[in-house]
Write a structure and sequence with these properties.
By secondary structure, the protein is mainly β. Helix content is about 0%, strand content about 50%. It has a 7-stranded antiparallel sheet with strand order 6-7-5-4-3-9-10, with no helix packed on it. It is globular and about 40 Å long.
Length: about 130
């Protein structure tokens, strides 16, 4: 399985079956992170965590406080893709980390980034 990231008219394939996405909430200015598995059915959410609570960022059902983070497991329905749009209000975009390293995404306001599973052959082509 590979993860494809499309931004600025280019698509990059990363050999990864898991990744974590983290960002700073634009209003509350606290960190949020979510983990995903890349599967044949799409991106399956794993653990989610938020460093606090506030406007539009309440911890999910069953959340527990662990080392200053509210941590929970959201419903695990596979997603075909994640569409990330930068607001410019946080001073940064998203940080996507996978076993091979990390990359910053969507740091410029208005940038749209799409994260999805790559095609079966590992290419950045359409998923069938």
């Amino acid at each position: 399985m590979s993860l494809c990231i499309a931004a600025a008219g280019k698509t990059v394939a990363i050999a990864a079956t898991t990744f974590t996405l983290s960002w700073t909430h634009s209003i509350e200015k606290v960190e949020w992170r979510e983990s995903y598995a890349v599967t044949e059915h799409g991106l399956v959410p794993g653990e989610a965590a938020v460093k606090g609570s506030g406007a539009g960022m309440e911890p999910g059902a069953g959340a527990v406080l662990r080392d200053g983070w509210w941590v929970w497991n959201p419903p695990a329905k596979p997603l075909p893709r994640l569409v990330l749009a930068a607001s410019g209000a946080t001073g940064a975009g998203w940080r996507l980390c996978h076993p091979g390293g990390c990359v910053e995404l969507g740091a410029t306001s208005g940038d749209e980034t799409v994260v999805r599973r790559c095609a079966e052959d590992g290419s950045a082509g359409p998923v069938r």
